[in-house]
Amino acid sequence: MSDDDNEYMMTVRLDNFVMQQDSKVLADILQDAVEDADEDYEFDYDDDDDGMADEADDVENQYYKAKSLKEDNAEGALKAFRTIVNDQSEKGEWGFKALKQMTKMNYLHLNRPEEALKTYRELLSYTKSNVTRNYAEKSINNILDYVGGEGKHAAISPQVPLDTLEEFYEATRIACDEAKNERLSTKSNLKLAKLWLDRKEYDRLQPLSDEWILRQLHDACMPAAGTSSEDQTKGSLLLELYAIEIQMYSDLKESRKLKEIYSASMKVKNAIPHPRIMGVIRECGGKMWMMEKAWDKASTDLFESFRQYDESGSPQRIQVLKYLVLTYMLMGSEINPFDSQETKPYRNDPQITAMTSLVSAYQARDVQAAERILKANRATITSDPFIRQFIDELLKSLRTQYIIDLIKPYTRMELEYLSKVLNVTKEEAEALVVGLVLDGRIKGKIDQVNGLLILDRFGAAERDRYKALDHLASSLQTLSNKLISENVVRRGQYEMGVIG
């Protein structure tokens, strides 16, 4: 190969390398543009100052070059971002963006929460006057989302000690107080309360003093004299607060407080909450009604919860759908919950197929099939403690329905046979039959000596009619005797001159 050919090949390789680097930088620019579009920020520039414009272009290039190093050379990227911050004579846009990237890298990718806290505190110092309030708020909210294990980065958010996480919120509180930013302070407190709820730190959420965070949030969310949009914003924040409280009281099984919060949340009208928030409130309400065996109310709330979760794309919709299916079976409904337009797409979902099979077994009154399904699908059905506490009641309901169907052609049946068919003890079978007799759902009596259920199947209607006639005759006889007795007394009094 000639020298010219070698030079040509080296030129091609160099051009390809440059193109690859430029493509990587371009991808970073596009990604950053998408992220910043969500945050809707504004910065002030002086168009007449060409020197500042050139400097801004240079810093912008540095920023995107630093960002292109994130995947392959994280330490190099951090140093490059730090250089941008240190080289700026005044705090501004690119320093803020660099600190935001450093915080994200340290926390999410390098698992250095202490270092992330340092850069976060430094970033907060920019929010007073160096970036717009709206952009600062949205950036801080995004950071607090992944710190609290929420948002689009929740899956890669590391496990960090609670004390360290609380320092992020404390730093935010101090910055909000200095900037007199009540709106951001309220949102930060809501995220902190949600963090405590997720960690089941209920003591920190309990009303112990004036510093109680839920009390502060209630005060901040109270409607005040202002525009309707302000009231709407506060109404939405109030529902977020109710969602936190209703989950806490549901977990603590404080039914009175749970019902109070549920009732209060249903009265909030001037609000446009996120569908996930209403999904939480309706789910807790549905579970509350299930505990009270108010199946109609439970089915209404759980269906609405499923619909809201589905709209928000929350995976909790699957669990709520299981609760809804369970409610339909417990209320003895013949309606298949998967026939509705909203639930039909989930009929064949791997997490739901066991429930669809259970519904089929229930509607077929097949006790053995239902028990097999429950045993074979512990992971998707009975692993949930809330569902597990209703399984015995579900099987009891299914067995009683099975007994009613089974005894129709018979006048008597051995309790021993019934226990074998139901796969329960003789005592349990007898208890089920006694319950049905006492409830009037079957006509008959128990022969405990011979272990028989004796059914009053044929002639029962006639006997009931004769009993009614006998009762009527007895009542008439009693009335007749009373009238005769009163007449005798009155006649005696007349003869004795007591009455004229």
Automatic annotation (TrEMBL):
Source organism, top-level taxon: Eukaryota
InterPro entries in alphabetical order: 26S_Proteasome/COP9_Components (IPR050871), PCI_dom (IPR000717), WH_DNA-bd_sf (IPR036390)
Q: Where in the cell is it found?
A: Cytoplasm; Nucleus
Record carries keyword Cytoplasm = yes
Q: Cite the entry's keywords alphabetically.
A: Cytoplasm, Nucleus, Signalosome
- Looking at the record, the residues that make up the PCI domain are 298-460
* Entry GO terms, CC: COP9 signalosome; cytoplasm
So what family is this one in? Answer: Belongs to the CSN2 family.
Q: What is this protein called?
A: COP9 signalosome complex subunit 2
